[in-house]
Amino acid sequence: xxxxxxxxxxxxxxxxxxxxxxxxxxxxxxxxxxxxxxxxxxxxxxxxxxxxxxxxxxxxxxxxxxxxxxxxxxxxxxxxxxxxxxxxxxxxxxxxxxxxxxxxxxxxxxxxxxxxxxxxxxxxxxxxxxxxxxxxxxxxxxxxxxxxxxxxxxxxxxxxxxxxxxxxxxxxxxxxxxxxxxxxxxxxxxxxxxxxxxxxxxxxxxxxxxxxxxxxxxxxxxxxxxxxxxxxxxxxxxxxxxxxxxxxxxxxxxxxxxxxxxxxxxxxxxxxxxxxx
Length: 277
Ligand code: SAM
What we know:
This protein is α/β, with parallel strands linked by helices and 277 residues long.
C-alpha cells in the first residue's frame, strides 16, 4: 500500500457479499486513496467505509441516474480517481455501472477493475454442478409467462445455468424449472459468506418440498445443471401441455423443440392432437 495519489480515471471495485473480511487488500487500498466513491446507496457504502476507517466523498450513482448525473461522474474522472462500488459484490453483475464504463471508455479515460466477491461465482464453486461451462442469466423474470419463455430459451444451452433469486419467488422459480427443464439437478446457494450459509443440491422436487417446509430467508443463487442423461427421457406431452397453457400450439412446439432438440413439425402435429382431445 502507498500514499501516492491514484491516476485519475475509473476504478471498478468489488466489495464483500456478506462477510466484510472478504474485501481485498487492493480494494481497500483504492478506496482509501480514491478521491470520490460513486455508489448505489450512500448508507450501505458508508457502512463499509466506516468499517475500513475511511471518510470519503460519496456520490449516489446508478444506471437510472440521468445523463447529467452520469456526465458529472465522467467529468470528475478527468482529474480524479473515482471508485465505483455497488451495494455488494462485483459492480455491473446485476448491478449498475455498465453505462458509466461505456462512457468512460468512449472518452478514452483510464478504466480498471479490481476483482473480488461475486455471488454467482461463489454459488457455482459451491454447488458441485459442472463448472467447465456456465451461463449467468441474472434474475429470472417475475411474470410467469416471461419466466417460462426465458427457461425455454435456455433449455438447450449445454452449460450450468446461474440465476439470482429472492426468497418470496424461490418456490415459483423451482416449479418453473421443474416444468421447463425436467430431470435436471438444481442447486440453491443461500446467504453466502454469512452466518447461515447453505447450499443444497438435488432433484427439484426435493428442493420444493424442503423450501415449502422451511421458507427461505436471505439472498439466493439458483443453479441448474446442464442437459445430460435425462435429455432422451423428456415427457414431450407434458412439456407441450405446459407450454400450451400460455402459448399457441405452434409457439409451444417451437419452445419444446428448442428445449429438447425434438423435431418441431412432429411436436406441432402432436400439439394439435393434444389440443383436440
Ligand atoms: N453484484 C452482486 C454480485 O457480484 O454477486 C449481485 C448484486 S444483485 C443486485 C443481488 C443478488 O445477488 C441477490 O438478490 C442474490 O440473488 C445474489 N446475492 C448477493 N449476495 C448474496 C449472498 N451473500 N448469498 C447468496 N446470493 C447473493
